[in-house]
Design goal:
By secondary structure, the protein is α/β, with parallel strands linked by helices. The protein is built from five helices and five strands. The model has no long low-confidence stretch (mean pLDDT 91).
């Protein structure tokens, strides 16, 4: 029996970062959708109901923390989608702050592929 492939929604405005994370996810067996802005990300999260979201915290239109709050405020299953913050914020306490705000994980830029896949497996309970 073939298991259904899990799909990510990546909310990221930088095309180079988007290509990198998309390739990483696809090589690990995940499907991938992309939103280039926070507003579009909120809309796509509601429409697609992805298995998880990777959310850049520094977006040009809506700060990533606001996107997180908008998704968490939704009624129904969209509010429970695991969200992993992806950011170049590397100050002491930033990880804890984002987790306290409702993120399920935290990825620092530059991206460490092994760390990303390890986190996804933990958050999603994947055995891939």
């Amino acid at each position: 029996m073939q298991m259904e492939r899990k799909t990510a929604l990546v909310i990221e405005d930088n095309e180079d970062n988007m290509i990198l994370i998309t390739r990483l996810l696809q090589n690990a067996g995940y499907g991938c959708e992309w939103a280039a802005s926070g507003a579009l990300g909120v809309e796509k999260a509601e429409q697609l109901l992805p298995d998880f979201i990777i959310l850049d915290i520094q977006l040009p239109d809506i700060e990533g923390t606001e996107v997180l709050q908008r998704i968490r405020a939704q009624a129904g299953p969209v509010a429970d989608i695991p969200i992993i913050a992806m950011t170049s914020y590397a100050m002491a306490g930033d990880r804890e702050k984002l987790l306290k705000l409702g993120c399920d994980g935290y990825i620092e830029k530059p991206i460490d592929p092994m760390s990303v896949i390890h986190q996804l497996k933990q958050i999603l309970g994947d055995s891939k």
